[in-house]
Amino acid sequence: MRTIQSKIILTFILTSVSVISLLGILLSYEIEQYFENRLRIQLQTEISTIEAILRESAQRRESRTSVISTLELISRTGTMRITIIDENGTVVYESWIADSLLSTLQNHSQRPEVIQARQRGVGFDTRVSTSTGDPLFYVAHRIDSTTLQQAYYPRLQFVRVAISLTDVNKQIREIRLNIVVAGIAVLVLVTLAGVVISRRISQPIVEIGKIVREIKAGNLEQKLPVRSQDEIGKLSELINEMTEKLKQDIEQLKKLERVRSEFLGNVSHELRTPIFSLKGFLETLQEGAIDDPHVNREFVKKAYHHASRLDTLLTDLIEISRIESGEMKMSFRYFDLSKFLKEVADDFIDDARKKHQTLSFEAPAVDGPLTQ
After folding, report:
1. Residue 372 confidence class, pLDDT cut points 50, 70, 90
2. Which range marks the domain in which residue 63 is found?
3. What pLDDT sits at residue 370?
């Protein structure tokens, strides 16, 4: 089962990995676009320079050797490949290949950058060169050969410049490596932050769980420390309040249990008295007093009185049960204590007479009834 802390840390890690990966992809794409745009601008500038050189050499009627020397100087200085292609796609000059090998080159009319240049005036492509085997970025530009009027390039149509991507790709790889290292560093920092934050969140919850288990086991003296005013702090306060109320309820229940036990003892005693009296009256009547007109009515009357007392006690028990269940509320009121005590004394007069004892009850007179 995963803990809250592990879930929070996992969420931090997954979110960080997703964000870092997305940023890495976007940065990598933007870097590639940046280098490609920079190369396009650079090579187009070089092509414009080459075109200007070719026009000037045509106007000055410079020799082919002089033009080639200038082009080779530009090629070496800019570390780029210069190709001049005629209208049929035949390579008439290649800075990286000797003139004696030009005839071995394939026709360039179907090269992607040449096709684009023929259609739109300028074309771009990135591929591995079939002649050198290097990854190159190509830019081809269509020019107006009528403005050149060169005898050595009479049908000149395209000027193409290419630059090796080896160094560029190396720089891109280094940048990507730096991005990966930075991403890993950020991931480690985020993970550490997730551990700290998740611990601060989960530790109070774990502590709450321990205290709740103690409370469940019956240890109500435990109290949760309230260290903040956030949701966890409010939860701790509520649990403490609940524990205090539970302690009060338990104390009240114990008190009610003691009262109940005392009451049951008193009720048992109260029930025993009228039952014994009833048995005594009935035994006396059975032994012959029922035929004595001087005592039979009196004994029957007293037996009825004790039976009524039993009925009252049973009614009290039922009402007490209703009070405990909440069905009936208790009503406290004053009553005539002298009358109550006289009735109790009258219940025991016959028992005292049998034992040759005299039982009497005397109470001071009061003004008015003690009732409410």
Report:
1. very low
2. 4-174
3. 43
Half-sphere exposure of 306 (CA within 13 A, CB side): 23
Q: What is the CATH number of the domain that holds 43?
A: 3.30.450.20
Report phi then psi at 143, rounded to 5: -125, 160
> Own/partner pairs for 125-129, CB < 8 Å, 24+ apart?
126/36, 126/165, 129/162
Which tokens in the block code for residue 86? 């005629």
Does residue 115 surpass a pLDDT of 90? yes
CA–CA separation, 70 and 76 (whole Å): 10
Q: What's the pLDDT at 116?
A: 93
Domain count of the fold of the chain: 1
Q: Of 317, 329, 273, 277, whose CA–CA distance to 300 is shortest?
A: 277
Q: With 0-12 CB in 10 A as exposed, 13-18 as middle and 19+ as buried, what is 57?
A: buried
Q: Which helix (H) or strand (E) holds 179?
A: helix 166-216
> How far apart are alpha carbons 286 and 295 in whole angstroms?
12
